[in-house]
UniProtKB/TrEMBL annotation:
Chain ranges of the Peptidase M20 dimerisation domain: 12-121
Keywords: Hydrolase, Metal-binding
Database matches in Pfam families: M20_dimer (PF07687)
Gene3D superfamilies listed in its UniProt record: 3.30.70.360
GO molecular function list: hydrolase activity
Organism: Achlya hypogyna
Name of the protein: Peptidase M20 dimerisation domain-containing protein
Amino acid sequence: QPCTALIPAVAGVITWSLRATGKLFHSGLPHLGMNALEMAMDAVTEMQKRFYEDFPQHEKELPYNFATASTLKPTRIESSTNGINQIPPWCKVSGDVRLSPFYDMPLLQEKLHSYVADMNANITALESRGPHSKYTLPKENLVGKLELTLDSDFSEGIACYLDSVGFQSFDEAVKHVKGDSQPFSTMGSLPLVRDLQRAGLDLTLTGFGKSSVYHGDNEYCLLSDMADGMKILARFANTVDNAE
């Protein structure tokens, strides 16, 4: 993790894509087409509304000093390559969910599928783009469609044990070397750590890079931070050994 600090918790993450299918038509006659781009935008707005109602900040997050609560957001959009003067027949929005470790991933997956199933069953309720933008064409027996895909390769979040020997020892080591320790949690994610904790390991998450360039185009670290990191690790290991 990119900082000389304890990271007592990280989020779970799962990626998703939502495909909206409408009908191609000339934009001068919008009432004869179904705008998949508008449908996708309305559907994502509704997904986010329901998500934040079902997954607000969890009370157990407070002692872990999270920078943010759980989030669902779009990060990429694709659509048909039709002309500018045509109603797009399909659009796909992709994004991710960053889920607090105090919520269960299976519950999230169930909720997301239920949101989309309900929107498909009530597709006209999404219409909000003026009087001529519709997601059904009754005379042609056509109905807009939403399809949600969740990535099967997801990571679960983890909350370290704040009262464990490992956490307390590392906190003391950071204070000794740096003069202060300010643990904070992020909605970043790490693979495998939840499984290791379930196996009985006392995990402590940390790192010695620079948060200001985390995942940046020119990510780097300072040798002085790495030197401090070695001092912290040495003191941490010695303290844990003596505690046992």
